[in-house]
Amino acid sequence: MHQPAITGHGVFTPGETITNDELVAAFNAHADRWNADHAEAIAAGEVEAKAHSSSDFILAASGIEQRFVLDKTGVLDPGVMHPWLRERRDDEPGQMAEMALGPCREALDMAGVDPSEVDAVICAASNHERAYPAVAIEIQDLLGAGGFAFDMNVACSSATFGIQAAADMVRSGSIARALVVNPEICSAHLEWRDRDCHFIFGDVCTAVLIEREDLARGPHFRIRSTRCATQFSNNIRNNDGFLRRTRKGHMQDRRDMQFMQNGRKVFKEVLPLVSKHIAEHMAEDGIGPGDLRRLWLHQANRTMNDYIGRKVLGRDPEPGEQPNILQDYANTSSAGSIIAFSKHCEDLAHGDLGLICSFGAGYSVGSVILERAA
After folding, report:
1. Which residues are CB-neighbours of 74 under 8 A, at least 6 positions away?
2. CA Rg value for the chain
3. Are 230 and 362 in contact (CB under 8 A)?
């Protein structure tokens, strides 16, 4: 048996941002158009008028102040309200594979590893660009990695589930190194015309390199243990394919084909599920609340994270104990906890313990306990 470790990590951040004020202006213009077009039905009580959104509402509901996106032009057009993403030819790199290259190379460079030394690539994301060939195999090819590759999807928990899969393979000796990459184009699945959710998501890509600890060439994070669980629920659902209604000429207008959630039920059911999961994982590993230096949580909602932090630590988290990147990136599905880890991990000292946890549709929850090694 071999000890797995995270030896490198990276983040790709798109070049375009949408602030809450920009988003609200577009949404409210859309709502005014919709209300004018349906004025008679609204007056007759057949449909409800669309209420305006506001930056204060968004910040209070989520803690989000802005989000990064691959395309803001379409999202901010009241007549469009979705991103325009250029359809790639079959002989061109796909959108997900292209955005994965930067963070993968960043992780490899940090670890001092050549792509040819990688034995597996796992593309773990909540939505995939196509059914096949696997996006992971395309990433493997573009990088020049060896071994094999495959896609996996456990919604917002995809990254932590991917880390467990890679760590288990390294631990068993079937591979020595694996890249787990999380390209999330959430803007293509969000219903930007729905006030209750139009502010939630952003786009990003993260990657971590997992390898045998005895092969590590510098400071790293020992993967002490992992834990995953699922429980079926329809309270967070997406029935559509990848970009079907975001490409010109391929529009769909069915509300049930985009991201949907029953927010109140999600809060009520997911919070105790996640808190219990983390507590039991820590107990299994012999770790008490006072032993944890850092919590890297899924970046879904500031209130949810604050609640989980208090339940896990038994008190309000101190500054730096539970870093949030939600205000800058919004919810980036599986990549959120990895962004938090990547941007808030290098200050940990040898022997410090931290825990990555992601949770979401499924329901699914995955946790990874790490120990800093010099």
Report:
1. 80, 81, 82, 83, 84, 246
2. 21
3. yes
The sign one gets for the Cα dihedral 31, 36, 41, 42 is: positive
**pLDDT at position 251:** 47
Over the range 108-142, which residues count as b (16 or more CB within 10 Å of their CB) and which as e? Answer: bebbebebebbbbbbbbbbbbbbeeebbbbbbbeb
- Is residue 123 within 8 A of residue 96, CB to CB? The reply is yes
Query: With contact defined as beta carbons under 8 Å apart, do 184 and 42 qualify?
Result: no
Position 259: which residue type?
A: F
Judge residue 205's burial from the number of C-beta atoms within 10 Å of its C-beta, 0-12 exposed, 13-18 middle, 19 or more buried.
buried
Q: Residue 20: how many CA atoms within 13 Å on its side-chain side?
A: 21
Catalytic positions, written as ranges: 156
Q: Which pair of structure tokens corresponds to residue 80?
A: 């469009």
pLDDT at 337: 97
* Tokens standing for residue 335: 């990549």
- Mark the ranges of the chain whose per-residue pLDDT is less than 70: 241-257, 259-261, 263
DSSP assignment letter at 51: P
pLDDT at 49: 96
How far lies 158's CA from each of 49, 112, 181, 220, in Å? 37, 26, 10, 22
Give kind and range of the element (H or E) at residue 26: helix 20-37
- The confidence score (pLDDT) of residue 261 equals 67
Predicted local distance difference test score (pLDDT) of residue 186: 93
Q: What is the pLDDT of residue 254?
A: 58
